[in-house]
Amino acid sequence: MRRVDRPGDRPGTEQQIQAAVTSRRPPAWRSPRFGVGVVLVAASVALGSWALERAASGEEMWVARHDLAPGAVLTADDLRAVAVGWEGGAEVYLRAGDLPRDAVVTSFVGAGELVPAAALGVAADVDGRPVTVPVPAGVSLEPGVLVDLWAVPRLDDAPPSQLADGVLVLGIEEDSGMLRSGSGTVARVLVDVDAVAAVLAAQADGGSVTLVERPGS
What does the angle CA 56 – CA 86 – CA 45 come to, to the nearest 5 degrees? Predict the structure, then answer.
């Protein structure tokens, strides 16, 4: 016999089938991916809170507002306090509030750097004298680098001679016209006491004193 389908026996439409399948899916909050995402977000928030709390609870240290050159008397105006969030920092760097009276900078400290406790002392600890020398054309210097000083005699047949090596550059200034700088700038350098006389003699002899960059300094 041939079966006759009645209206109530017809299979459901495509939309009805899709709705039935969807109704059987578990809620989104019960999905494993949802749970992993919640855990990751919670861990990220906890880590960020820990980092902020760690930084806020750090001990305050002094940071140089500008370049600190050897021989300069250190004052509170040269410094600003920042929180340092690691242990042992106070054993190496100067803590905010601890500023020795009449302290003199003995080692170069760049702007924005923490001030090492070992970079301070008294004037007698600075083994050198500031001397100004011209910067040759094409040479670009920054405070804190090391250079060599050479004397170029006035006579063409006399060879140049080295006056000092490993001299610290304290600062760069515009040339006032006294030293005939090829670059238009002069450098203040910290010359060892034993070499000061030779540098001054070379400048007074009619020749010139020039500086030579030290690669990697």
Answer: 50
Between CA 10 and CA 30 the distance in angstroms is 35
pLDDT in tens, 129-176: 999 898 888 888 889 999 999 998 877 667 889 999 999 999 988 877
Contact 141, 147 (CB under 8 A): yes
Q: Which residue do the tokens 């090391």 mark?
A: 146
Query: Which residues, in sequence order, are CB contacts of 72 under 8 Å at separation 6+?
Result: 78, 104, 105
d(CA 116, CA 17): 75
In the DSSP assignment, the letter for residue 73 is B
Q: pLDDT confidence of 50, banded at 50, 70, 90?
A: very low
User: Which SS3 state, helix, strand or coil, does residue 43 take?
Assistant: helix
Instruction: Tell me phi and psi for residue 202, to 5 degrees.
Output: -65, -35
Torsion angle in degrees (nearest 10) through CA of 22, 26, 32, 33: 40
CA distance 146 to 53: 40
Task: Tell me the pTM.
Answer: 0.63
Catalogue the E-assigned strands of the chain.
59-64, 79-84, 104-105, 120-121, 129-134, 146-152, 161-174, 185-191, 208-213
